[in-house]
Amino acid sequence: MRASGAGKGADCMAAPERSRYRARARAATATSAPEHRERRAFCAQVARCRRRRDTESRQRAFAPCASTRKPALLRSRPSPPASPRNLRYERGCGWRMTRLSILGFGLIGGSVALALRRALPELHVTAIDLEPSLEKARARGIADELVDFRDTRAVERAFATCTVALLAAPVTVIRDRVPFAVRRAPVITDCGSTKRAIIASARNEPRAARFVPGHPMAGGPEGGIEHARADLFENRPWILCPEGADEDAVVTVKRLIRAVGARPVVMSAAAHDRAVARTSHVPQLLASALSVLVDRAGALEAAGPAFERATLGAGGSVSMWGDIFETNADEIARALAELFAELAPVKQELENASGAEHARALLEHARRLRRG
Asked: Which end of the chain is more exposed for a tag (fewer CB within 10 A), N or C?
């Protein structure tokens, strides 16, 4: 290998030193192993010098550019905030995750921990929850450290020393605790099922830009750490609402999402709440209402696969779903009104015994949607 000339201003060795290393490198093939290693070290040093020279050349080439948007090599990036030693900042990639603190160690939080343990074996996971959930986490051996939710100092320490804080508790718990987390953790995200109330709670915090709101579109009929599994998020969308968040914080959260096997999908908080009212919240009400209707009619003995599929998620956690209905009430009410309006002509037609054209049209439309 031949080093670049001194006149180019990028070589990091003086000419006599360069000549001496060249001589040693030429003789290395016929000498001992230590000298061969020295030759390899020299070659690596020369390669680093050349890469540095090439980078500087590209930067000089971009320097005269007068466009309004700076080239990527010159664009300023946010400096990492004051942080503990365990945090590592990679230029262009955000924080490298070494420690994850999860508040709410149930189905979602536990599944995130399992998936990340598979992708990042050296990751340190801290579980923050109430004692009954921590006992189950201890039994499964998912977390490296267990912190009682009621121990404020321990929770503060867990947030202050992590790379990312993930809030996977019920919506109102996240809403109440997100300011506390934003004041302490380098990067914060959440898994709340509604977004506007949570974002509003963090909006006035000085470090609100470190918060990247999120919602994984995954779950199961039963909650709790005992049902957590590593493949829960495989190929599932994970919605992000990053308005106003720092670029490096968003990059870090997207890397977390991809590490668990999910796909980041970006939308506004308003669009998220409007969408999930129709794809998640109203379906929960419909499944539960159908279950109650069948029970009241004494018709359960006649239930088949269609009923089982339609009511699979019925009767969700009252506390969790109560929070969702409270914080997304307006969009759920609109979605219900749209549903009733869609079914009203069917009801009217059947009551009048005037045929079933509206019902047939509704089924045909749905069939076309399924076929794509």
From this structure: C
3-state secondary structure of 99: strand
| Of the candidates 76, 230, 101, 89, the residue with the CA atom closest to the CA atom of residue 156 | 101
CA distance 120 to 310: 37
How far is C-alpha 6 from the geometric centre of its chain's CA atoms? 49
Residue in the structure block whose two tokens are 């929960």? 284
Report whether pLDDT(325) > 50. yes
Q: Find the helix packing angle between 318-327 and 171-182, rounded to 10°.
A: 70
Written as one letter, the residue type at 323 is D
Strand partners, 165: 101, 188
- Please name the amino acid found at residue 363: L
Yes or no: say if 145 and 158 are a contact pair by the CB < 8 Å rule.
yes
The greatest distance separating any two alpha carbons of the chain, rounded to the nearest whole angstrom, comes to 102
Q: Output the average pLDDT for the chain.
A: 83
Domain ranges of the chain: 10-52, 88-267, 273-371
User: Between the CA of residue 305 and those of 301, 312, 315, 363, what are the distances in Å?
Assistant: 12, 10, 18, 18
Please tell me the distance from the alpha carbon of residue 39 to that of residue 19, in angstroms, as a whole number. 13
In DSSP terms, which residues pair with 101 in a beta bridge? 126, 165
Strand runs labelled E in the chain: 88-90, 94-96, 99-103, 124-129, 145-148, 164-167, 187-190, 211-212, 214-216, 237-240, 263-266
List the one residue out of 39, 29, 15, 165 whose CA is nearest residue 104.
Answer: 165
The predicted model gives 190-197 an average pLDDT of: 97
Q: By three-state DSSP, how is residue 223 classified? A: coil
The SS3 call for residue 194 is coil
Query: Exposed, middle or buried, 107 (CB in 10 Å: 0-12/13-18/19+)?
Result: buried
Selection from 22-26, 34-38, 214-218, 354-358 with the highest mean pLDDT: 214-218
Name the nearest CA neighbour of 303 among 294, 293, 316: 294
- Residue 68, pLDDT > 60, answer no
Write down the architecture of domain 88-267 according to CATH. 3-Layer(aba) Sandwich (3.40)
What's the CA gap between 361 and 352, in Å, rounded? 17
